[in-house]
Amino acid sequence: MTESTQGRTARYEGETFRREDWYGDELAEREYVDCEFFDVDLTEATTRQVSFTNCTFGNVRFNASRHTDSAFVRCTFTRCNFFEAEFVGCKLVGSVFDQSSLRPLKVLGGDWSFVGLPGADLRGITVHGVRMREADLTGANCTDAVLADVDLSGAQLNRTRFTGCDLRGSDLSALDPTLVERTGAIVTAEQSIVLAQALGFEVRPAR
Length: 207
Hints:
Blueprint: E1 2-3, E2 10-13, E3 16-18, E4 26-28, E5 30-33, E6 36-38, E7 46-48, E8 51-53, E9 56-58, E10 66-68, E11 71-73, E12 76-78, E13 86-91, E14 96-98, E15 106-111, E16 126-128, E17 146-148, H1 189-198
Parallel strand pairs: 2-5, 3-6, 4-7, 5-8, 6-9, 7-10, 8-11, 9-12, 10-13, 12-14, 13-15, 15-16, 16-17
Antiparallel strand pairs: 1-2
């Protein structure tokens, strides 16, 4: 570990943390690069302006944790638990979730572009005002979720389930209505025009 001369920012690089108990800990202004976390308990922990880059998380408990203005860039989460976790203004660009429990999860603002969530169970989660450009949601189950004001441009949405999902205000330009489950999905009038055009309809004003 190296620290700045002011002692405010701690940097950890290439370290492995195993079976650590960080329950309820408050982490701030730290930087982790190429680190590994296995069986770490982050239940009810909080992070603020903490940066994780190219890190691996295995069987880590993020239950009821709160993350504000933090970054998890190009990280891998395997068999992690995010029960009632919250991310506010966080950056998760290029991160991948594998066999992780993500319900219920709340994401408010931030950048989740290029995130990998193929086949993820996202039922009932809340995502609002988030950038998810070119995210991989192939086969994800977003039933009854809220994905409002989300930038989904270029996202992979093949076989994604949007049954009962609130999609109002989101960019649906990458959505092919014939390749997703959409019964009861909620959209605005403006979005319905985009979807109609995706189906080949030419939308004109009434005579």
